[in-house]
Amino acid sequence: HMIAVNNLGMLLSRQGDYEAAEPVLRRGAELARGLLAPDDVNSIQFRFNHAACLAWLKRWDEAEPALLALYEELERSLPPDQLVLGMAARTLADAYRVNGSPEEEARWRAR
């Protein structure tokens, strides 16, 4: 159920329907928090997905601190060459672009 909820939210997000995706991804993150250990990579990713959706909705005050903290959690949980880390860094770069921070975007693209 938790994976299906996250996948639906990601599908809506990829289609650009962030308003519809946000509550679905929030629910996926809540389910992950309740069912998985806080340091479980899936739990971190589901919460990261929700925070990214907040960034696309320009809810940057909520999104930025969550994205940065969750990226750090991913860094602690995964080997440095993990594809997931590269994808998360690109998501952060895109989020900074969408929210008007080209310097931070460049810094994250360089990772």
Furnish the topology, listing elements before pairings.
Layout: H1 2-14, H2 18-35, H3 41-56, H4 60-77, H5 83-98, H6 102-109
Q: Would you identify the regions where 5 or more consecutive residues have pLDDT less than 50?
A: none
Query: Ends: how far apart?
Result: 34 Å
Summarize model confidence as the mean pLDDT: 95
Oligomer: single chain
Helix content: over 70%
Radius of gyration based on Cα positions: 13 Å
The description of the largest β-sheet is: none
Number of strands: 0
Per DSSP, what share of the residues sits in E-state strands of 2 or more residues? Answer: under 5%
The helix-strand sequence is HHHHHH
Count of helix runs? 6
Secondary structure class reads: mainly alpha
Q: Note the overall shape.
A: globular
List keywords for this structure.
111 residues; mainly alpha; globular
Overview of this protein structure:
The structure is a single chain. Helices cover 80% and strands 0% of the residues. It has helices spanning 2-14, 18-35, 41-56, 60-77, 83-98, 102-109. Helix 3 packs parallel to helix 5 (83-98). The longest helix is centred in the first third of the chain and has 18 residues, at 18-35.
